[in-house]
Write a structure and sequence with these properties.
Layout (H helix, E strand, L loop, with lengths): L13 E3 L5 E3 L3 H22 L3 H22 L15 H17 L7 E2 L4 H25 L6 H25 L4 E2 L5
Antiparallel strand pairs: 1-2, 3-4
Length: about 190
C-alpha cells in the first residue's frame, strides 16, 4: 500500500511540525522551511542547467544539505523528535568555501557591481541566490523571535548565497558571456 500524498488535515490552514505541534501555515517556521524547499527546487534547476561536473556534483550535495536544513526547521524546538534528524556540519560550510576560493582563482576580480543575467543559466543562479538570501532572512527572523535556529544553518545559508553568486560569475567565465557591469546614472 502506498502512502497518500493528501491527508486533508491541512485544509483549514494548519499543519504540524515534527514533534506534533500544530501551527498555522502562516507561522514563520513554516515560511522558513518552505522557502528552503523553494530554494532546493531552484538549486535543482541550476544543477540541471550547469555543464561543469564539479559544480553539478556540489549542487546535488547542496540539495541534500537543504533537506537537512528543512528538516531541522520543521522540528518543534520544544520537543524531541521521534526520529533522528541529520545535521549540518562545519565541513559542509567548508566545502562551499573551498569551491568559492577555487572558482575565484579562475575569474577576474570584481571591479564593479554586476547586473544579474546574460545567459539563462546565469540568470537562474542569481534567482537561486536571491531565494537563498530570503531563506536566510526568514531564519534570522525566526531566531530573533526566540524560535531557536541552529547557528550552523544561518552560516550555511549565508555561505551558500555567496557560493551561488561566485558560481554565476564562474558561469560567465565558462560560457564566455561577458558580465554586465552596472553603470549608475550621474
Amino acid at each position: 500500500m502506498s502512502l497518500k500524498i493528501y491527508t486533508k488535515t491541512g485544509d483549514k490552514g494548519n499543519t504540524s511540525l515534527i514533534g506534533g505541534t500544530k501551527v498555522p501555515k502562516s507561522h514563520l517556521r513554516i515560511e522558513a522551511y518552505g522557502t528552503v524547499d523553494e530554494l532546493n527546487s531552484y538549486v535543482g534547476l541550476c544543477r540541471d542547467l550547469i555543464t561543469d561536473a564539479p559544480a553539478r556534483e556540489l549542487l546535488q550535495t547542496v540539495q541534500d544539505r537543504l533537506f537537512v536544513v528543512g528538516a531541522a526547521l520543521a522540528c518543534d524546538p520544544e520537543k524531541e523528535p521521534k526520529m533522528k534528524i541529520p545535521d549540518l556540519k562545519e565541513e559542509d560550510v567548508n566545502a562551499l568555501e573551498l569551491s568559492i576560493d577555487k572558482m575565484n582563482e579562475a575569474i577576474p576580480p570584481m571591479k564593479n557591481f554586476i547586473l544579474p543575467g546574460g545567459h539563462p543559466t546565469i540568470s537562474q543562479l542569481h534567482i537561486a541566490r536571491c531565494v537563498c538570501r530570503r531563506a536566510e532572512r526568514c531564519c534570522v527572523r525566526l531566531e530573533l523571535e526566540n524560535h531557536e535556529v541552529e547557528p550552523i544553518i544561518l552560516q550555511y545559508l549565508n555561505r551558500l548565497s555567496d557560493y551561488l553568486f561566485v558560481l554565476a560569475r564562474y558561469e560567465h567565465h565558462l560560457t564566455g558571456v561577458a558580465e554586465i557591469a552596472w553603470k549608475p546614472r550621474g
